[in-house]
Amino acid sequence: MENSTGLQTNTPVGEFERQPVPSSQFKDWRKFLGMFAGEHAAGTEFVIGPLFLTAGVSAFDLIVGLLLGNFLAVLTWRYITTPIATAERLTLYFKLEKIAGRKLVTGYNLANGLLFCFLAGAMITVSATAVGIPFDMPMPALTDTTPNSLSWVLVVLGVGTVISIVAAKGYDAVSKFSNIAAPWMVMVFLIAGIVAAKRLGVDSFSDLWAVWGTGSEPFPGQIKFTFWHVLFFAWFCNAAMHLGMSDLSVLRYADKNSVGWTTAAGMYVGHFMAWISACLMFALYLKSPEAAAIFASGGVPPVAPGPLAYEVVGIAGLICVLVAGWTTANPTIYRAGLAFQAIFPKSSTVKVTLVTGGIATIAGLFPAFAMKLLDFVAVYGFILAPIGAVIFFEHYWAEKLGVTKYYASSKGIQFNAAVLLAWLISMAVFYSLSVYQGVFLSFFTLPAWIACGVLYLVFSKIFQKK
C-alpha cells in the first residue's frame, strides 16, 4: 500500500526507514552538536593524526590544509546534504530505491553497508588497543594485517559486542551516548595535545615548527603528503557522508537547514584539534628510545592509539581511546544497519543492526583497516560519493531538463540502468587515472562526483525518451 506521497506504509516504522520523518520527531541543533563532535573526535583520530606524520607532512601543510579542507567539508554538509535531507526527510537508501530500483539499490546497499562495517571495524580496533593495555596485550604494528594474538581476538570481540548493542537501540541511544561522552572526550584530546606539546618543548608556533616544521621523508610504504593532500583528504575523508548523501539518514531529523553547521563541531574539534593532538603524541613517541631502537633495526614504529594516549595522560587517555572509538563506531554501525535493513525491509532494525555489528567486529580483528586508514578512507569515500550526485543532480535539475524524478518508482521498474552506468563509468575513469598516473585518489573524488551526476541526467534523458 502507498499513501499520497508514493511512500509505502505497510512496513514497520521503527526508525522511519520507508517514510518521511514526521514533524513530531524533528530535533534541534543541540541533538546534533554532540553527535557530530563525538563521532568525529573519535578513536580513528588517534590513528589518522600519526599517519600524517608517517606521510612526512610539514607543520604548515598540515595546519593550513586542515583549516581550509575542514571548512569545505562543513560547507558541503550545509549546502549540499542538509537542504535535500530536510526537503524530503527520507533515508538515503529508500530515496535511492525510488530512483534506481530495488535490484540496483540492493547491490549499492550491500557495498555501502560493508564499507561502513569495515570503517566501524577500524574504530573497534582502536578501542581494543586501549582495553588491551592492562592485559599486556601485544599491539598491532603498522604493517600488521591479521590478528597477532588470542588476547587481541578476545578483546576485540568484547568491545565489538558492547558497541553493537548500543547501536541497535536506535538513533536516540546513539545521540544520547555521544552527547554524554563528547565534552569529556574532547577535553582529554585537548589536554593530551597540550601535555605532549609541553614534553616536546613547544611553547610557541616557532617551537611547533621545530618539532616537525619542514616535514620529513615518508615511512616505508607511505606516500609523501603535501598541502593539497591534506586539504583534499580533510574535505573528502567523509565524502560518503556529505557528497555521498549518507547523512540524509541522520539529517532528515533536523528541524531546519542551519543544523548543517553543527558538523563544524566534528570538523574543528575532531578533524583539526584531535588530529593535531594525535600528531604531537606520536611526535613525542618518535623521540623515545624505543622508537629510536626500532628505526635502528630497520623497522617501523607502531601506531597503536592506546599506548600513545596512555604514555601522555595515563588512565584518562586509555578511557578516551576506548570511548572515542565507541562514539564513532555507534553511528557508523547504525548507518550500515539502515543499509542492510533496506535490503531486508521485513527484518527488524534491531536484529539487522546486531548482525551488522557482528560483521564490524569481525573486521575489527584485522588491524589492516586501521593501519591503512588514510588509504581506506580515501577509497570508501571515492566509491560511495558519486551515487550522491545522482540524488543531488536529480533534485535540482531533473524537472528543468524534462527528466522524470523517482523514475524506478514511477514506472514500477526494479533496475534503472542510467544510475548504474553513470556510477560505474565515473568511478572506472577516475580510479584508472589515479592508479596509472600515481595520483592520490582524493584528488579525483569531486571530478568523479560531478561526472556521475552529469552522466546520470544524460543517460536518463536518452533512456526515458526511448
From TrEMBL:
Which chain regions cross the lipid bilayer? 59-80, 108-130, 150-168, 180-197, 225-244, 265-288, 308-329, 350-370, 376-393, 413-433, 439-459
Signal sequence residues: none
Keyword list (alphabetical) reads: Membrane, Transmembrane, Transmembrane helix
Give any Gene Ontology cellular component.
plasma membrane
Q: Which GO terms describe its molecular function?
A: cytosine transmembrane transporter activity
Protein name according to UniProt: Cytosine permease
